[in-house]
Amino acid sequence: MADGLILAIDAMGGDDAPDVTVAGAELFVAARPNARVRLHGDETKLASLLSKATERIEIVHTDLAITSDMKPSQALRRGKGSSMWNAIEDVKAGRAHASVSAGNTGALMAISMLVLRKMDGVHRPAMTAAWPTLRGRSVVLDVGANLEADAAQLVTFAIMGEAYARAILGIEKPTIGILNIGSEEMKGHDEIREAHELLRNSDLDLDYHGFIEGDDISTGTVDVIVTDGFTGNVALKAGEGVARMLGTRVREALTSNILSKVGAVLAIGGLKQLREQMNPSNVNGGVLLGLGGVSVKSHGGTDAKGFARACELAADLANSHFREEVAHNLNKIRQKGIAAE
Amino acid sequence: MADGLILAIDAMGGDDAPDVTVAGAELFVAARPNARVRLHGDETKLASLLSKATERIEIVHTDLAITSDMKPSQALRRGKGSSMWNAIEDVKAGRAHASVSAGNTGALMAISMLVLRKMDGVHRPAMTAAWPTLRGRSVVLDVGANLEADAAQLVTFAIMGEAYARAILGIEKPTIGILNIGSEEMKGHDEIREAHELLRNSDLDLDYHGFIEGDDISTGTVDVIVTDGFTGNVALKAGEGVARMLGTRVREALTSNILSKVGAVLAIGGLKQLREQMNPSNVNGGVLLGLGGVSVKSHGGTDAKGFARACELAADLANSHFREEVAHNLNKIRQKGIAAE
């Protein structure tokens, strides 16, 4: 891995694989002149899809692929040697700096955890999501790697989310909030209140804002939103559902009569910009934070541009000081018995 | 209460009270020729705000009002004789069929529970919210009356939500879903899985659909979404935040240049319709279900039209068979030891 970054890609995972993953990999290497890619999957198919041969994209053949209906336990038993497994194994073995897959989420989390193992001090890894806000973008975690989180886990989520936001959003000192109902300190579960106290009174060098509520996420009140995986997943999907519904409604409104159709044509510049702002491809990619290597999950239904975006996210994270920063902060709370041993 | 419905209104609660509450009460009685209102609050102020004297609006004087910063415990200790308390007391004493307040939510829940008490068989009351969907509207509960809910409580939420959706949405046989992450049966907390089994195997005459995910809410996959108060509150507010952010973005897009401004003027018919569809006033009003009487919570920042909408909701619910239907179903599960004794 002497010069430049190497990315391991599961080319067979996702709704429109391998077409989208190959096209996405080509977009990625075009945008990053020093990057190289190891493309895992069916050699014949992948070679036929490459628009031109380049030594910066190396195909690594395997017949095996993880299907979307496979349960995590099945993926662990039967997934060895699959394109997903091999991509993650590349990271473990040092053949790549990071891996990307648009495949089965449960399988990806299970295989990533087994192969890459947890970072020292982390109880449980957490899945991130990027959330578009009025101020730009925020990071929400956990959005589904775990069902629950105790106070110490929430504190480690805060530490990881903060370093992650710095790495991928380029914010020098990201602010952190814990998702709660009501901003009064008496509200919320015990776990949340305890995490709040730990973060408020810690000597960690974190910009902890306090509790936030659901509507603060889109406002961009904080850069990092800390919550348990159940709540985070529901909030993320509820928000996605509202955005989709409103998109449908706006389209209906702008085609409801001949005048509004003409109006929509005139307004097309502004509307295009809006569509670009809200394009899920631009915020594609979640990361299972807290592992011994970078494993990025792309949305399964993404397009080539979105997949390339997930590759860039993986590259940015691999190129950052994320691990050192997290290790530094985990070490501080370990001395207080909060981090995992 | 011989002829027509009587509504008790806390005229002093809400951001713009009593202006909005008085105007809303007048809109309500104008729309419901047989309804009467008991308006609780400062007699001089209220009388001066009434556009014309009518015997259908009776002012019931009190000096005391619950403030927005009062904690529930303070409201219970010091709130007796306040406009909010007196409105709820009207329902208890049979002087009104239902009460409405736009005031302090925590205080309203606490006073409602103390004064109206729980219905037989209900462990904990649940707060509802109306959620606009692609198909119309759905009911989400609990959105914050409780932090947690065990399986038996979730089953009673399903029973109450179903009867409520019939009463206020006019759906003959509302469908019910439990909010979860992933639709596979193995996922989710124990409480959720247990409630799922109870509803699936019950002899209740309910149209139980199964698990749904966050994005299904806006799709309108089911009419009633059952969840615990923490998750429901976060989902509701996260969705509100996304809707507000997108509203801002659409406005920006339609005013970003001169062409798009002209376009927006031409499209104004369709956009007006959209704004009307999405107007929060049209879905205003949450109800604390499971009490011995109807207590409706209006959004604190609503306008007169929205407050009138909350009054109509209260009237519809008071006029329905909600209580009998819930009692009937609770009785069935009580025989199996699921309902509260």
Automatic annotation (TrEMBL), chains A, B:
GO terms for cellular component: cytoplasm. It is found in: Cytoplasm. One of its GO terms (biological process) is fatty acid biosynthetic process. Pfam families: FA_synthesis. Pathway: Lipid metabolism; phospholipid metabolism. Its EC number is 2.3.1.274. It catalyses: a fatty acyl-[ACP] + phosphate = an acyl phosphate + holo-[ACP]. GO terms for molecular function: phosphate:acyl-[acyl carrier protein] acyltransferase activity. Homodimer. Probably interacts with PlsY. Belongs to the PlsX family. Keywords: Acyltransferase, Cytoplasm, Lipid biosynthesis, Lipid metabolism, Phospholipid biosynthesis, Phospholipid metabolism, Transferase. It is an enzyme of class 2 (transferase). NCBIfam families: plsX. InterPro entries: FA_synthesis, Phospholipid_synth_PlsX-like. It comes from Hyphomonas atlantica. This is Phosphate acyltransferase. Catalyzes the reversible formation of acyl-phosphate (acyl-PO(4)) from acyl-[acyl-carrier-protein] (acyl-ACP). This enzyme utilizes acyl-ACP as fatty acyl donor, but not acyl-CoA.
